[in-house]
Amino acid sequence: MPLPAETPRPLPDTPLGAMTSFDLSTATGMALLRRFDAQLRRIGDAEAQRAAVRSLSCRAPLSSRATGLLVLPGGALALRREETVLVCDPASACAAAGPAVAALRKQLAAAPLHSVVHADPGLLMCAGLPSAEMVQAVTLVEPAALLSALWPQTADWRGPALLRWGQEGAVAWEMVPAPAPLALGASVVGEPLTEGEALPRDLWDAPTGDDRYQLLSTGLSAYLDELLSNEVSDLLRFELADHWTDGEESLASLLADGLGLLPSCFAIPASQPAGLAALQDWPRAAAAIATAGAPMALLGLAPQDWPSGWRLEARQAFLRLIRQAVPAEAAALLAEGMAAPLPLTQIGADRAARRAETALAVLLPLPATPLDLLLLGQRVAQGCGGPVQLAAPAWGLWHRCDPQGRAEAGNGGWYSPGGGLEELEETL
Fold first, then answer.
1. What is the distance between the alpha carbons of residues 328 and 333, in angstroms, rounded to a whole number?
2. Are strands 57-59 and 21-23 parallel, antiparallel or unpaired?
3. Considering only CA atoms, which of 302, 258, 291 is closest in space to residue 398?
C-alpha cells in the first residue's frame, strides 16, 4: 500500500532497515525521508533502488490548493475544512418521493443553505434552494437535523447532510470524515466551487475509472513535486511519484476506484441526471414515468443483457415474480412497440411479453426505500436466471442485477446496500 501502517514494518534490505513508514506531515517524518534519500543514492543498482522505494508507505499532509465545497472527478462532492475532508457515506442514504419532497422544500425554504446546480455553463453554487425545475441539483444542509422532521435518524448525524434533488424525489447522505487516502486525493484533485462562478465540465467530468485515474495520476505527481522538490533528490521524487501513480495497485488507481463508489451528484449532459443513462434502453418507459403524475420505478429486461438467448421462459418468469411482489393493479407492462402501457393484471400483458423482441419493462409504484427496490431487483433476477435492470428517476438510481455477478453494474452502491465508507476504507 502506498499509505502507512501505524507502526514500521521490518524490511532489512531497505536503506533504513525496518523504517519503511514515514509521516511527511511532521518534521521528523520528513527528516527520516531525507535520510532514506541519502542512503538510497548509495545503492548502485537501479532495480534495487526502485524496490526500496516501492517498499515505502508515506502518509502525506493534505494539499493546500483548495478548501470549502469541492467537486471530485466523476461528480461527487466533498467538503474541506482545515485538515478534515468530509464525503457522503453511502450507508446513510435516506430517500423520499412525492408529497414528502414538496413538504421538505417548504420546510427548508427559509434556512441559510447553499446549493449547487448543473446549468449549461457548468456547475454553479448559489444561496438557498435550487429551482424545482433543475434536473441536477444538490443542497448542503447544515445542521443535518434540519431534515429530522422527514428522516428522524438525521438528528444523530455528526456532520452536515448532502441533499440531492431528483424527479419528484430526494436523497440525503451524511457527510463524514473520509479515509486518509481518499482525503488526500480529494485535496489534490478536488475543484473548489465559488458562488457566482461556473465550474466547467472539463475540470470534473470523469465518468469512468480510467478518466478518474488520469486526473489523479497527474494531480498526485504535481503534488509530490510541490511537496518534495526542495526536500529530496529527483531520484527519490520521481520514483515515489511512479510508485503512487503506476499500476493497478497504485494509490492513483485505488483512489480512482474509490471515487466511483461515492454518490455522484452531477453528470453530462445537464439534462440527464447522474446514473440514469441506462433509461435510453426504454425511451417510451422513461417518458411514461415522467408523465405518470406520481413517482414510479422501472424493472426491465434488455435483450443485449442476455447473450445466451432472449428466452420466453425468462420473460414469463419476469412477469410472474413481479406480480407476486407488488400490487399488480398498480403496475403496468410496456414494450417499445406498444402504444401505451398495459395493466399487469390483464392477459394482454402476457401476450405482449411472449411477442416482445425488444426491451421489456414494468412500471411500478416506488417502494419505500432504494434498498427495497434493489432487493426486489435481485429477487427477480434470481428467478429469471439472468440480468434485470432497475431504475428510479426520483432517486437517480439505476442498477443491473445479475445473479451470476458477471454483468452487475450501476450505482446501487450509493444507496445503502453495503458497508458504506467502512467498506471503502478497507479497499484503500
1. 10
2. parallel
3. 302
CB 325 within 8 A of CB 380: yes
Quickly tell me which residue has 531520484 as its cell: 235
Average pLDDT over residues 189-204: 93
Report residue 282 as a C-alpha cell: 426504454
Judged on CB neighbours under 10 Å (0-12, 13-18, 19+), 368 is: exposed
How many angstroms separate the Cα of 259 from the Cα of each of 82, 201, 390, 413, 425? 21, 17, 23, 12, 12
pLDDT tens readout for residues 58-106: 889 999 988 999 999 999 999 999 899 999 999 999 999 999 999 999 9
- Supply the DSSP string of 316-379, one letter for each residue: HHHHHHHHHHS-GGG-EEEETT-SS-EETTSHHHHHHHHH--S-EEEEEE--SSHHHHHHHHHH
Q: Given CA atoms 30, 36, 37, 39 in this order, what sign does their dihedral have? A: positive
Q: Could you give phi then psi for residue 169, rounded to 5 degrees? A: -150, 175
Do residues 309 and 386 lie in contact, with contact meaning Cβ atoms separated by under 8 Å? no
* Residue-wise DSSP of 150-176: T-GGGGG-SS-EEEEEETTEEEEEEEE
CA–CA distance, 202 with 194 (Å, rounded to integer): 17
- Are 25 and 274 in contact by the 8 Å Cβ rule? The answer is no
CB 78, CB 70: distance < 8 Å: yes
CA distance 353 to 309: 15
* Neighbour-count burial for 370-407, b at 16+ CB within 10 Å, e otherwise: beebbebbbbbbebbebbbbbbbbbbbbbbbbbbeeeb
Q: Give tens-digit pLDDT for 333-352.
A: 887 677 778 888 888 888 88
For residue 314, report the phi and psi dihedrals to the nearest 5 degrees. -65, -40
Determine the number of helices (DSSP H) and then strands (DSSP E) in the chain: 12, 19
**DSSP assignment letter at 178:** P
